[in-house]
């Protein structure tokens, strides 16, 4: 690994981000990199980029984008006014999986949450990702809640 660079994503990074979202077993079933959806991804990016409580991150190794994740900073009243950092859409380029890049990405994300005065970092992960579950638990995350979704 060269020197990793963590930075806010730009519109020019959108193709690389979508490619990583598509490039895994679950993503292949729910994402679509076809030109027909380019406007939807671009609109979503624009909304994320305009929101000060969002940080869409890309990780570069040299000139190559090798990872991405989205941080959402959630102010709240519960837990004595705790601000939470939510980590979502974590993806690593397929040729870089297993290289400790995920550990570096989470260390960076947790530092960002601390810098934003979050006292809790949380994430969701699909039940069908047992390797991810082991990874998150190894990092100290605990499976404390059950999540529910409703497609509308």
TrEMBL record:
Q: Among its keywords, does the record have Signal?
A: no
What is one Pfam family matched by this protein? Acetyltransf_1
N-acetyltransferase domain span? 4-152
Please tell me whether the keyword RNA-binding is annotated for this protein: no
Taxonomic lineage of this organism? Bacteria, Pseudomonadati, Pseudomonadota, Alphaproteobacteria, Rhodobacterales
Q: Kindly provide the name given to this protein in its UniProt entry.
A: N-acetyltransferase domain-containing protein
For this UniProt record, give its keywords in alphabetical order, as a comma-separated list.
Answer: Acyltransferase, Transferase
**UniProt-listed PROSITE patterns:** GNAT
An MF annotation (GO) of this entry: acyltransferase activity, transferring groups other than amino-acyl groups
> Which superkingdom, per the lineage?
Bacteria
Report the source organism: Thioclava pacifica DSM 10166
PANTHER family given in the database record:
AMINOALKYLPHOSPHONATE N-ACETYLTRANSFERASE-RELATED-RELATED
């Amino acid at each position: 690994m060269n020197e990793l660079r963590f930075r806010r994503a730009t519109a020019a990074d959108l193709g690389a981000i979508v490619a990583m979202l598509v490039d895994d077993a679950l993503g292949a079933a729910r994402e679509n990199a076809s030109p027909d959806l380019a406007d939807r991804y671009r609109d979503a990016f624009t909304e994320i980029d305009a929101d000060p409580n969002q940080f869409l991150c890309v990780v570069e190794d040299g000139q190559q984008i090798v990872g991405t994740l989205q941080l959402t900073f959630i102010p709240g009243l519960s837990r004595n006014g705790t601000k939470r950092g939510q980590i979502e859409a974590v993806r690593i380029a397929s040729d870089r999986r297993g290289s400790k890049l995920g550990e570096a990405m989470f260390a960076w994300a947790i530092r960002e949450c601390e810098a934003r005065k979050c006292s809790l970092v949380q994430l969701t992960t699909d039940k069908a990702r047992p390797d991810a579950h082991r990874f998150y638990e190894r990092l100290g995350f605990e499976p404390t809640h059950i999540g529910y979704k409703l497609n509308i």
